[in-house]
Amino acid sequence: MVRMIGLTIGIAFLVLPALVFAKEYVVGAEAGRDSEVDYYAWADGKTFYVGDVLVFNYSQDEHNVIVVNATGYDKCLASSNSGAFYSGNDKITSTTPGNKYYICQWHCDYSDQKLMITVLRP
Ligand SMILES: *[C@@H]1O[C@H](CO)[C@@H](O)[C@H](O)[C@H]1NC(C)=O
Ligand SMILES: [Cu+2]
């Protein structure tokens, strides 16, 4: 029983910091909804951690958010098994560390509407 409690507290200490300090980032917030956002500039200087949430706000009929790999990011290619979001208010939680790549299928090539972030362990 004591062991169980100890284990529970141990887990709480591992999980809590991620929850307590998880931040929500509205992508391109400073520039406003649907405007031409410089995503490189937006991400520059921000540090993202596992548990953080990216919020993508946009007009549903104009944009989307496709999760791609590095190749898809460079070449603006969405593979059929990519995660895809279309709601116009997508919240994507980073659950693992590493580089994350998101593109808008329609404007990735056209106006560089793509975002790359590096997610660190908390
Ligand atoms: C990365 O994405 C590209 C383009 O969609 C795809 O062809 C390739 O198989 C993917 N690579 C990996 C390792 O998943
Ligand atoms: Cu778009």
Automatic annotation (TrEMBL):
This protein's GO CC annotations: plasma membrane
Signal peptide: 1-22
UniProt-listed InterPro entries: Cupredoxin, Phytocyanin-like, Phytocyanin_dom
Primary subcellular site in the record, as a coarse category: membrane
Entry's Gene Ontology molecular function annotations: electron transfer activity; metal ion binding
Domain Phytocyanin: 23-121
Location(s) in or outside the cell: Membrane
Entry keywords, A to Z: Copper, Disulfide bond, Electron transport, Glycoprotein, Membrane, Metal-binding, Signal, Transmembrane, Transmembrane helix, Transport
Membrane topology: Single-pass type I membrane protein
Pfam families linked: Cu_bind_like
GO annotation (BP), single: response to symbiotic fungus
Domain of life: Eukaryota
Protein name: Phytocyanin domain-containing protein
